[in-house]
Design a protein that fits this description.
Layout (H helix, E strand, L loop, with lengths): L3 E2 L6 E2 L10 H7 L8 E7 L5 E2 L12 H12 L2 H6 L2 E14 L5 E12 L6 E13 L2 H8 L5 E6 L6 H21 L5 E7 L2 E6 L2 H14 L2 E13 L4 E12 L7 E4 L2 E8 L3 E6 L4 E5 L2 H4 L3 E3 L2
Parallel strand pairs: 3-7, 8-12
Antiparallel strand pairs: 1-2, 3-4, 5-6, 6-7, 8-10, 9-10, 11-12, 13-14, 13-17, 14-15, 15-16
The structure holds zinc ion (2 copies).
One zinc ion binds next to helix 1.
Length: 304
């Protein structure tokens, strides 16, 4: 039989290669067996070992860390592929990537997901996922530990679902920060994270923690902030009222270099400061708006 060649790279194709005029390498580049996110964030309860992606905590079958990660990856990332059951998966942990916290908790690692087609095991594919582990307290354990369930609340909100990534990113940073703080002082922790339609509510163990988190967010993000307090009782010993503090954080729905349409005119977002947004149109005239403008008015963002 005369040699056949890969249409893409020119390599000689063997009989074992798929019959698409391509070698396996090129075939898989065209059409990977699966597609997984590059990064994945998992919450682990520091007391009981339950895990969660968002607010629902799941008790793992095996209470060791690695089987728990394995179970979580299968449940959260591979579920749709497993339903079709045409790919066989295996997960390996890249020991060299392990990053530990000062308390010897594994914080971050790379896992390699290997998959092969069940009916044609020559078709193999692998992807590496960077897994971030956040150690928190699950609902139960925080109840058990705290006694006081929560003291303050931070509400993180975006304007619409196109900004959900922002919530994920901010939440990740908050988790990392709070975990570090918790290692130093166990008074500060997030006792509950509750999903809301356009964001999340964080139930916090202390008022200081609320302020620390606001400070943390101010470094990187632009938002409107609204603080409220609600009388929840009276501390008789100290002779003063007790309040529950709540902070609403509304992330600005635009960022620098976005182009927005205001009254049929294109404006470039030139600069964002602590409370103002500077825009410029094509005729080079300038416009300065408050943050609240972008929440109250219907602003169209141009996709670039
Ligand atoms: Zn090829
Ligand atoms: Zn727990």
């Amino acid at each position: 039989m005369p040699n056949r060649f890969c249409a893409i790279c020119g390599k000689v194709i063997s009989d074992a290669d798929p019959h698409f005029g391509m070698c396996y390498d090129c075939y898989l580049k065209e059409k990977p067996l699966f597609d997984l996110p590059k990064r994945f964030s998992l919450n682990i309860c520091i007391d009981c070992g339950s895990y969660s992606k968002k607010e629902v905590w799941i008790e793992p079958r095996d209470n060791e860390l690695f089987p728990t990660i394995n179970e979580a990856i299968h449940r959260f990332l591979l579920k749709n592929y497993l339903k079709k059951s045409n790919i066989e998966f295996s997960i390996t942990f890249d020991e060299k990537s392990y990053i530990f916290s000062s308390k010897d908790l594994l914080n971050n690692l790379d896992i390699v997901v290997n998959g092969k087609m069940k009916e044609n095991t020559n078709l193999k594919y692998q992807e590496t996922i960077n897994v971030n582990l956040n150690y928190l307290l699950c609902k139960n354990c925080s109840n058990i530990r705290g006694g006081t369930y929560y003291i303050s609340i931070i509400q993180l909100r975006v304007k619409d679902e196109t900004q959900f990534d922002l919530i994920d990113k901010a939440l990740n940073e908050i988790n990392k920060y709070v975990e570090k703080l918790f290692e130093k002082d166990q008074k500060h922790y997030i006792s509950k994270i509750e999903d809301q339609k356009f964001g999340v509510d964080l139930y916090l163990s202390s008022n200081e923690l609320m302020n620390y988190i606001i400070k943390l967010l101010r470094v990187k993000y632009y938002f409107l902030i609204k603080r409220t307090k609600k009388l929840i009782g009276r501390d008789i010993q100290k002779g003063k009222n007790l309040y529950r503090l709540k902070t609403l954080i509304k992330f600005l729905p635009i960022q620098k270099n976005d182009i927005v349409i205001i009254e049929n005119e294109d404006f470039l977002i030139e600069k964002i400061t602590k409370n103002k947004v500077f825009l410029r149109n094509r005729k080079n005239s300038k416009l300065i708006k408050n943050y609240s403008y972008f929440f109250n008015e219907k602003i169209l963002k141009k996709k670039i």
